[in-house]
Design goal:
Number of helices: 18
Oligomer: single chain
CATH superfamily of the largest domain: D-Amino Acid Oxidase, subunit A, domain 2
CATH class of the largest domain: Alpha Beta
Largest sheet: 10 strands, mixed
Radius of gyration: 23 Å
Bound molecules: flavin-adenine dinucleotide
Number of domains: 3
């Protein structure tokens, strides 16, 4: 159980290590450090997973396109990065099977040459994965391809090739990492922003000033080592510790749109192998929607980013080259955008930059920064970082145990769990599936709440299987502090439909007000603020009001 009041009280102690940033990288570092016996504090400025780590394409992948980049730039290092990620893919799937699974991707081919070229690429991907391969790649005839994807543009289609990768719930996985860390005795605190890092002259960092973004109170935390795992904000934290630090990141925006899956007419995933600007685009079934992404546009700032009308136009344009019946803007039901925190390398474009990571220990301050990488390699990034922390603390480097450490909700999560829960708690199969997909065996705790108070067994809104007990569970056990914490990252409704999320906001606010003792005015303000944000997102994306 994660209670923010308990975490605030515990944050006053002295820690071996403080991890700054509660995205995938920071949560992975916190879990690894705690498992090695380090007394660990995790501080996150917003909510866990609220920045890049819930804005990914949701792929656990080696990155098939990086193989092409490796060939184009004669870069064997890139091949090594792909190979390592393919191995990490297996650990990620294994440690939280309720949040992740294997998926087959179809690459349509419109000439014999394409068929041979993509066929060779996917075979190489299989070979690199070796024993870590999920499903072997295959060739599909034209008829087989159209059977799997009836809406595929058939003019000129000669067939398809398939390959496999993993797919996951990124926000859910991030939260499961934080829960697992907290269950092991780690202290995790969200809505707590590092404002300043402090040290005595000639010594390493020893404390940080934190602003509690809920109460606006500032306080100090103390630790013997500090890890900067702030993704796109990493250069800002490096400069906070050492104003002479030179920037290391190159930032790139990536956007996605969500469409109703039935409009696509297939339950299979497609990889669009070549866009006009030399990228790939995925069209993937995800949580009952079709997720289409992503773009890649260099940016200078890491502030709030959102889906723009240009992003929408770009993604629909490329998707529509491959389908019989074009999809249109009016069908879009949501979307999101994020910033890739890539390590800069000479003048290469962001799409060709390696997804490798680097651990940097600042010589003057001892700040340990983990830079670059991707979701799939969060565990390996954490392992390298905590090795560096132990070296910095002049400890012997203890063996990392995260390769095989099941995340909270995984143990006992069988394939029949959904049916058992639906039967025992007399809930719909859809609700049971939704709860288990988010929480694994922790779903029982939500259903226990609903069993004790029948009002909590009611749906939050019609058209989505989440029930009200999830709101209460998120507040009492999962440190949810706002409507967005609940609807975006705990329940996932914001990633399913902006319209339904706006409808759900007053219901969620009612429970937040009850649990936290908010006044009517504060409750209404929270609803207005959240719905206003959704409205702005719609407008920026050119989707009306
Ligand atoms: C469009 C897109 C698609 C992607 N798709 C994939 C994919 O399919 N598969 C894959 O493997 N990878 C993918 N990635 C990459 C992956 O999402 C990122 O590498 C990963 O999420 C980065 O995690 P992070 O924890 O480093 O950063 P973040 O998730 O951004 O976390 C950093 C955290 O630090 C916090 N923070 C910042 N400043 C402070 C402060 N002063 N005090 C306290 N906290 C602070 C922030 O609030 C934030 O939560 C994608 C990335 C993008 C942008």
């Amino acid at each position: 159980m994660m209670r923010r009041t308990d975490a605030l009280a515990a944050a006053g102690e002295e820690f071996d290590v403080c991890i700054i940033g509660g995205g995938a990288t920071g949560a992975g570092c916190a879990l690894d450090a705690q498992l090695r016996g380090l007394k660990t504090l995790l501080v996150e400025a917003n909510d866990f997973a609220s920045v890049t780590s819930s804005a990914s394409t949701k792929l656990i992948h080696g990155g098939i396109r990086y193989l092409r980049e490796a060939a184009l730039h004669f870069d064997p290092g890139q091949v090594g990065v792909v190979k390592r990620a393919l191995q990490e893919r297996v650990y990620m799937l294994h440690n939280a099977p309720f949040l992740a699974g294997a998926m087959e991707f179809i690459i349509p081919c419109y000439s014999r040459w394409e068929s041979a070229y993509f066929g060779a690429g996917v075979k190489l991907y299989d070979l690199l994965a070796g024993k870590a391969n999920l499903l072997p790649s295959r060739r599909l005839t034209r008829d087989q391809a159209l059977q799997r994807m009836p809406t595929l543009k058939s003019d000129g289609l000669v067939g398809a090739v398939t390959y496999s990768d993993g797919q996951f719930d990124d926000a859910g996985y991030n939260l499961a990492l934080v829960r697992t860390f907290a269950e092991l005795g780690g202290v995790a605190l969200n809505h707590a922003r590092v404002m300043a890092l402090e040290r005595k002259p000639g010594e390493g960092l020893h404390s940080a000033q934190i602003q509690d973004e809920i109460s606006r109170r500032t306080f100090e935390i103390r630790a013997r080592a500090f890890v900067n795992a702030t993704g796109p904000a990493s250069d800002a934290i490096r400069r906070m510790a050492n104003p002479k630090a030179t920037p290391r990141l190159k930032l790139s925006k990536g956007a996605h749109i969500l469409l109703p899956l039935q409009q696509f007419g297939s339950g299979d995933a497609m990889l669009i192998p070549e866009t006009s600007d030399g990228r790939v685009i995925f069209a993937i079934p995800w949580m009952g929607r079709l997720l289409v992404g992503t773009t890649d546009d260099p940016v200078n700032e890491f502030g709030d980013v959102s889906l723009s009308d240009e992003d929408v136009g770009y993604l629909l344009h490329h998707l529509n080259q491959f389908v019989q019946k074009p999809l249109v803007t009016e069908q879009i039901i949501g979307g999101f955008a994020g910033i890739r925190p890539l390590i800069s390398a000479d003048s290469r474009s962001t799409k060709s930059l390696s997804r490798d990571h680097k651990v940097e220990v600042d010589e003057q301050t001892g700040l340990i920064s983990i830079l670059g990488g991707k979701w799939t390699t969060y565990r390996a990034m954490a392992e390298d970082t905590i090795d560096a922390v132990q070296r910095y603390l002049r400890q012997s480097v203890r063996e990392c145990s995260t390769r095989n450490h099941p995340l909270s909700g995984s143990v006992g999560s069988t394939t029949t769990l959904c049916e058992e829960l639906a039967r025992t708690y007399r809930t719909s199969p859809e609700t049971a599936r939704h709860l288990v997909g988010k929480l694994g065996t922790n779903a029982v705790r939500v259903l226990e709440l609903a069993a004790a108070a029948p009002e909590l067994a009611e749906p939050i809104v019609d058209g989505f299987p989440a029930i009200r007990a999830e709101i209460v569970y998120s507040i009492r056990n999962d440190m949810a502090m706002s409507i967005e914490d609940i609807l975006a990252r705990r329940i996932g409704l914001q990633f399913y439909s902006w319209k339904l999320a706006a409808q759900a906001a007053p219901v969620v606010a009612q429970y937040l007000a009850r649990e936290y003792g908010w006044s009517d005015e504060r409750r209404q303000h929270a609803v207005d603020e959240y719905v206003g944000k959704l409205r702005r997102m719609l407008q920026t994306a050119g989707l009306g009001n």
